[in-house]
């Protein structure tokens, strides 16, 4: 038997020490205090051995943008096991308990996380739902289109001066991009906090704003990093976020980021698979894009989750789902939906498609093709033609991407 306790506010310091050990970091006091501001003790689960915390998992209470909607989603985080207590089933016990509590609470139909290693979480039903592109550009090899007439105005601002503008634009556009998490005041403080220990030798965070006819319609969060070689400057631009409501704002922001004096390289590690920048530069190969996993999603309540999102085309199918951890999800589910709404109910009708709950997680944000999963043997077609009929509906017009690591 593994005794799992609910965390308390006073456990946070010891939890931070455990995380530092597990992730090979020296805890920074300033970072630690910022993280304390978003910690939710009642969603913290821990295991003690002789009074010391040796395993931990937690979740944040936030909403997640999904195709056509925003749903409550448990943002799983701070998962770690002490090196002295590995291979004892502690992680498995914590994950099972956490999923059971999320399901029983009935508020969050899905959970989401960033995986330190991709092999860990599939066994708990998480599927890779929002891949991302990492870009490492050589700016000397790239050109962007020239400015258009009346393209608007760019200006630099301090994060504490423009948080309200950033929040308004981000929330306005969040509905259009599956994978973006809601940010209240606490989370904007967390995202914009700029601790020297986390700069990696780069500058403080800069905020670039684009003003259109109706005010701020684009922004970028970025840093720069000085570097010199015998041949001259080789500075780097480190882009964290680019959010733009119009093509004009998007082009203007990237044109400035590509042309900063004394810089020759640029890195952007959270680009979307359908990032417009790929269609703007004159030599996309020079962006050196690499596809990696980003956000992982676990469907906790199958009918509630499938009914909560929207579908690109009309869907009317019966899916047989298996779930070894949450047996309530196992069974046949009749899904009917389109771009205006959906419903999902249990049924005795013959199944047309079959998959495990992990595959549903991969499909959920619209970034994984149903037929691609079928080609890998992850989805089975039980009625000829069911894949062709249902496949387009599970997609979406924007690729999912996660804007932040939590």
TrEMBL record:
<dbReference type="Pfam" id="PF17668">
    <property type="entry name" value="Acetyltransf_17"/>
</dbReference>
<keyword id="KW-0808">Transferase</keyword>
<feature type="binding site">
    <location>
        <begin position="87"/>
        <end position="92"/>
    </location>
    <ligand>
        <name>acetyl-CoA</name>
    </ligand>
</feature>
<dbReference type="Pfam" id="PF13530">
    <property type="entry name" value="SCP2_2"/>
</dbReference>
<feature type="active site" description="Proton donor">
    <location>
        <position position="121"/>
    </location>
</feature>
<keyword id="KW-0012">Acyltransferase</keyword>
<comment type="subunit">
    <text>Homohexamer; trimer of dimers.</text>
</comment>
<dbReference type="Pfam" id="PF13527">
    <property type="entry name" value="Acetyltransf_9"/>
</dbReference>
<feature type="domain" description="N-acetyltransferase">
    <location>
        <begin position="2"/>
        <end position="147"/>
    </location>
</feature>
<comment type="similarity">
    <text>Belongs to the acetyltransferase Eis family.</text>
</comment>
<protein>
    <submittedName>
        <fullName>Predicted acetyltransferase</fullName>
    </submittedName>
</protein>
<feature type="binding site">
    <location>
        <begin position="116"/>
        <end position="117"/>
    </location>
    <ligand>
        <name>acetyl-CoA</name>
    </ligand>
</feature>
<dbReference type="GO" id="GO:0030649">
    <property type="term" value="P:aminoglycoside antibiotic catabolic process"/>
</dbReference>
<dbReference type="InterPro" id="IPR036527">
    <property type="entry name" value="SCP2_sterol-bd_dom_sf"/>
</dbReference>
<feature type="binding site">
    <location>
        <begin position="79"/>
        <end position="81"/>
    </location>
    <ligand>
        <name>acetyl-CoA</name>
    </ligand>
</feature>
<dbReference type="InterPro" id="IPR016181">
    <property type="entry name" value="Acyl_CoA_acyltransferase"/>
</dbReference>
<dbReference type="InterPro" id="IPR022902">
    <property type="entry name" value="NAcTrfase_Eis"/>
</dbReference>
<feature type="active site" description="Proton acceptor; via carboxylate">
    <location>
        <position position="406"/>
    </location>
</feature>
<dbReference type="InterPro" id="IPR000182">
    <property type="entry name" value="GNAT_dom"/>
</dbReference>
<dbReference type="GO" id="GO:0034069">
    <property type="term" value="F:aminoglycoside N-acetyltransferase activity"/>
</dbReference>
<dbReference type="InterPro" id="IPR041380">
    <property type="entry name" value="Acetyltransf_17"/>
</dbReference>
<dbReference type="InterPro" id="IPR051554">
    <property type="entry name" value="Acetyltransferase_Eis"/>
</dbReference>
<dbReference type="InterPro" id="IPR025559">
    <property type="entry name" value="Eis_dom"/>
</dbReference>
